[in-house]
Amino acid sequence: MKAFGPANDKVLSFPMEGMTLTLDFKREPGLEELTRDLDAIVMKHGGRIYLTKDSMMSEECFKAGYSNWRTFADFRKESGADRVFASEQSRRLGL
After folding, report:
1. Hey, where are the domains in the chain?
2. Closest CA to 93 of 63, 68, 48
3. Does residue 23 carry a pLDDT above 90?
4. Structure pTM?
């Protein structure tokens, strides 16, 4: 658990004012349902999930938590990066 101060203006920056909690789970049956339930709690409270630690976040949760996601998506498209760089995560998050 960590406390963060004010957010910065970086497009997909994770830190925002408040507390963060890190949880690790073993991948086993039922995990997807659990993470969807936890994502709903995070969204309900205006939080977000750390992108570099993510392996299951939904597109809905990502877009709710990272309000500047379109700026990043537009940059990827305008620069041509969307045609060169892609990952399972970027496809899952709608980037």
Report:
1. 2-69
2. 63
3. no
4. 0.85
